[in-house]
Amino acid sequence: MPYLDVSGHRSYHEITGAGEPLLLLHGGFCSIETMRAMSGELTPSYLVHAPERAAHGRTPDHGRAFDYGAMVDETLAYLDAVGLSDAHVVGFSDGAIIGLLLARDHPGRVRSLVTISGNLDPSGFVTGDRTPSAAWQAASAQIDREYDELSPDGPEHAPVVTERLMALWTQQPQIVPASLAGVTARTLVMAGDRDSISTEHTLTIASAVPDAQLCIVPGASHLLVVERPGLVGRIVHDFLQERP
Predict the structure, then answer these.
(1) Residue-range definition of the domain harbouring residue 76
(2) What is the DSSP string of 150-213?
(3) Nearest to residue 109, comparing CAs of 117, 99, 124?
(4) Are 187 and 118 in contact, with CB atoms under 8 Å apart?
(5) Predicted model pTM
(6) CB within 8 A of 159, min separation 6: which ones?
(7) CATH number for position 45
(8) Other beta carbons less than 10 A from residue 121's beta carbon
(9) Looking at residue 84, what DSSP letter applies?
(10) In 3D, which of 46, 18, 11 has the Cα closest to residue 32?
């Protein structure tokens, strides 16, 4: 099984494809399965590294509170463990937040950045009732099944992880838009037009990162990487293939 030691923690990862290195960062309560269909558009051109963070996918829980700073440290430790000095970074949801923090605080490690459905702070979430679409419900059920099937901690551990994630999402991140002015990596900011992150908040991110490109995917929710993987993957691939 493709496990390796990441800062003393037994962590699952996969490496597929060929080409320049690309780091794929999944969302909260997700595994790399969430982004597998999308990454199929990337593997012909990139060597895709897909780690699963602690308490996600096939990587066991570490029992500590979740914190985005610690997730950045975990990601840097993974890059070191596989011998990558830098990589293109594609992050979804929590992975998008990690990608933004990597590009801001460790610019030498990020060749280019794609953030999908990320947020700068908890105010980015859409407020009020919204009836979930059938596509969202199907994607959400898929993620729940994947946790039950993959987690080495067992299905009964899901509420423990969910509770700690909810504590994280209601308090973090706290990224000041002006702090992203120093991001030097070419950046694409993406979200769905029915995302749980408001379009206005997504625009704030794109406006804060110098020369960032913006893409709002039509007919897609926060789980756009599951709902529209082919489209999302092609957009990401085309962006990465562009040269300044």
Answers:
(1) 3-241
(2) H-TT-GGGHHHHHHHHHHHHTT-----GGGGGG--SEEEEEEEEE-SB-HHHHHHHHHHSTT-E
(3) 99
(4) no
(5) 0.97
(6) none
(7) 3.40.50.1820
(8) 16
(9) -
(10) 11
Tokens 């990139």 -> residue? 46
> For the sheet containing 20-25, what is the strand order?
3-6, 9-17, 46-51, 20-25, 87-92, 110-116, 186-194, 213-221
Residues 6+ apart with CB under 8 A from 102: 72, 75, 76, 89, 109, 110, 113
pLDDT digits (tens, 9 = 90+) for 148-158: 999 999 999 99
Strand residue runs (E) in 41-129: 46-51, 87-92, 110-116
Segment 176-190, tens digit of pLDDT = 999 999 999 999 999
Report how many domains make up the chain.
1
3-state SS assignment for residue 19? coil
Place of tokens 């909810």: 166
152-155 long-range contacts, CB within 8 A, separation 24+: 152/58, 152/59, 152/60, 153/55, 153/60, 153/61
CA-to-CA distance for 32 and 183, rounded, in angstroms?
Answer: 26
CB 72 within 8 A of CB 80: no
